[in-house]
Amino acid sequence: MKILDVGCGGGLLTEPGGSLFITTINKTQLSYALGIVFSEQIAGIVPKGTHTWEKFVSPEKLESILEPNGLSVQTVAGMLYNPFSGYWHWSENTSLNYAAHAVKSRVQEHPVPAEFVLKGETEQLRANAYASPGMHEELKK
């Protein structure tokens, strides 16, 4: 996950109105198949071990982490990488990669740690992946 903190002086963590920009990989069966299985293990586009499935996060989960911490998500846009051209493109499809823009709306006295929000999501998504026969066969490779 790439994070850019933009504030008007004091920075995002202390200043209402500061912007947070995040780019990351969505936590979907497709992103697992393409981001880890294909790009790391089959095509070798990136070195094995580059991506960690447990760190993938959906836009909805990201919003549920940011909002209790005083951040309001303004925009979510999909990002697609073309390995042949080497360029990234904006897209409406967020199933693989996406960028999010959030704005600090208030000072948060007691932030909610992300590990409490993310707990248990990985096991559920893995269970869903194995429930799909086609995905199960792809993940076994």
TrEMBL record:
InterPro entries reported for this sequence: SAM-dependent_MTases_sf, UbiG_MeTrfase
Biological processes annotated in GO: methylation
Coiled-coil regions listed in the entry: none
Keyword Methyltransferase among record annotations: yes
Cellular component per GO, a single term: mitochondrion
Domain of life where this protein originates: Eukaryota
Keywords assigned: Methyltransferase, S-adenosyl-L-methionine, Transferase, Ubiquinone biosynthesis
GO molecular function: 3-demethylubiquinol 3-O-methyltransferase activity; polyprenyldihydroxybenzoate methyltransferase activity
PANTHER family: METHYLTRANSFERASE, UBIQUINONE BIOSYNTHESIS O-METHYLTRANSFERASE, MITOCHONDRIAL
NCBIfam families found in the cross-reference section: UbiG
Protein name: Coenzyme Q3, methyltransferase
Organism: Prolemur simus (Greater bamboo lemur)
